Amino acid sequence: MPAKTGKEYIEGLKKANNNIYIHGERVDDVTEHPAFKNVIKSMANLYDLQYEKPEKMLYTSPTTGNKVGMTFLQPRTIEDLIARREATQEWAKTSGGMMGRSPDYLNAEVMAMGVNNSLFAEGDPRFAENARNYYEYARENDISLTHTLIHPQVNRAKMQHQQKDANVALHLVEERSDGIIVDGIRLLATQGGITDEILVFPSTVKKAGELDDPYSLAFAIPNNTPGLKFISRESFDYGKNEWDHPLGARFEEGDAIVSFENVFVPWERVFVCGNSSVCNRTFKETNAVVHMSHQVVAKNIVKTEFVLGVALSVMDAIGIDGFQHVQDKGTEIMLTLETMKSHLYRAEHNAKLDNSGTMTPDFAALDAARNWYPRIYPRLTEIIRILGASGLMGIPTEADFHHDEIGPIIHRGLQGKNLEGYERVQLFRLAWDLTLSAFGSRQTHYEYYFFGDPIRMGMTYFENYDKEPFRNYIQDFLKKSSSVKA
Ligand SMILES: Cc1cc2nc3c(=O)[nH]c(=O)nc-3n(C[C@H](O)[C@H](O)[C@H](O)COP(=O)(O)OP(=O)(O)OC[C@H]3O[C@@H](n4cnc5c(N)ncnc54)[C@H](O)[C@@H]3O)c2cc1C
């Protein structure tokens, strides 16, 4: 099957009738439900874009000859890497990078694990084959994916097997001749239920020991598998129009708790079964972390461009762009953008072929970027808040502007340097939705925790960094200093 259209994506969701719960109810038709229908439309637009820009968004499948999604491409050259990244950025531009789980993120994971599958054979030779087949299946059917990595937040001071109720977290119940039975809870599936399938994988950051083998699983199943439930948090799409909520009314992806009640997973969909050692090495040894980071850095460049555009527009709107500290804050965003672009350039231009013949970006550059962006993104949104000040609260709705009595008052009263009130408030509502609304606050939280807990990621980064050359440099420098004794 060639790449999906938006219509096919929506029809697929209708037919699947995934088990989704929100606001105390089971969702009948997710594509019509107010909490999901707008983001589903935005996802559909992404799929349609594949056909609006086929030269950028599609390529010829090596197995079927069909036109499939570029974001599934196994890159073999630097040009391939760049082409795949440009497709990511094309998608990201449609939302200003606000759709963190556009399909390209997990397409990169599935591709990397599919082509670098030998690690999975340590558990069972079939598992390596499964990973390869799953990549082809996902690519040829343009499967949309959600994923879940994290055990429930019960007691983080203990391992899973030490928890007071050790069966809360997703665990292996039984191995059968045809597959496995799993049961328990996983967190936190962004776009849970509004995609075709779910990937269950281990966390990169939270390593497990052998006693946690029953929790060490990796598999992929359709989201309508019996026993699978998505329990979504309350929606931040309040059903307002796009003028009032320019981001929340379009790109609210939702986050869901995933419940598995004695769910059957056929063997052909299992990649890791009760093996903490393989789980701990999965992202690194398959290079999935590298290809996913490449997608993330590319997406975050677009996101930073969007933030910069909003900041500059706010400055212009209220005539603050001449003030020194305001310019300096603009510079902070510009430096972030340029630094991210440099990381990306280095990652792509220092890329090398791995053992599977996949052109693999330079991870040192991407690792620095993925550790740094979660720390800097909260500052970027803080800058918008500082610049916008009361303007981020003086934001009547579009309906207020159309009111006979108050419309003319606010149109005049809320004018900007060169903007009428209506235009200025539209801009400031965007700045508010980017930073302060429930949607905007979640974006900041999302970026902070994107790849895991930044504190523990930072500790790992420090541990793995090759520090010796720098210590030696200083030792040599000190040795060469002249002594007063001499
Ligand atoms: C908006 C949003 C969307 C998300 N979407 C997804 C998704 O689609 N799929 C998915 O799988 N996950 C998703 N996540 C989960 C994300 O991967 C985790 O939030 C992240 O890995 C951190 O884990 P945690 O939330 O369990 O935090 P915890 O590990 O519970 O940490 C909580 C706090 O305790 C501290 N802490 C805990 N343990 C230790 C320790 N051992 N040493 C030192 N400090 C510690 C942490 O530093 C942190 O401050 C999402 C999270 C958010 C916020």
Automatic annotation (TrEMBL):
Coiled coil region boundaries = none
Question: Which Gene3D superfamilies does its entry note?
Answer: 4-hydroxybutyryl-coa dehydratase, domain 1 (1.10.3140.10), Butyryl-CoA Dehydrogenase, subunit A, domain 2 (2.40.110.10), Butyryl-CoA Dehydrogenase, subunit A, domain 3 (1.20.140.10)
Q: Superkingdom of the source? A: Bacteria
A family per Pfam: HpaB_N
UniProt record, GO biological process: phenylacetate catabolic process
| Signal peptide residues on this chain, from the entry's feature table | none
Binding annotation for substrate = 101-105, 147, 203-204
Q: Where is the HpaB/PvcC/4-BUDH N-terminal domain?
A: 5-272
InterPro entries for the chain? Acyl-CoA_Oxase/DH_mid-dom_sf (IPR046373), AcylCo_DH-like_C (IPR036250), AcylCoA_DH/oxidase_NM_dom_sf (IPR009100), HpaB/PvcC/4-BUDH (IPR004925), HpaB/PvcC/4-BUDH_C (IPR024719), HpaB/PvcC/4-BUDH_N (IPR024674), HpaB_Deino-type (IPR012687)
What are the UniProt keywords, alphabetically? Answer: FAD, Flavoprotein, Oxidoreductase
Give the Gene Ontology MF terms in alphabetical order: flavin adenine dinucleotide binding; oxidoreductase activity, acting on paired donors, with incorporation or reduction of molecular oxygen, reduced flavin or flavoprotein as one donor, and incorporation of one atom of oxygen; oxidoreductase activity, acting on the CH-CH group of donors
Q: Which residues bind FAD?
A: 147-149, 153-156, 190, 453-456
Can you give the residue ranges of the HpaB/PvcC/4-BUDH C-terminal domain?
Answer: 279-478
NCBIfam families (alphabetical): HpaB-1
Q: What is this protein called in UniProt?
A: 4-hydroxyphenylacetate 3-monooxygenase oxygenase component
Query: Native species of this protein?
Result: Ornithinibacillus bavariensis
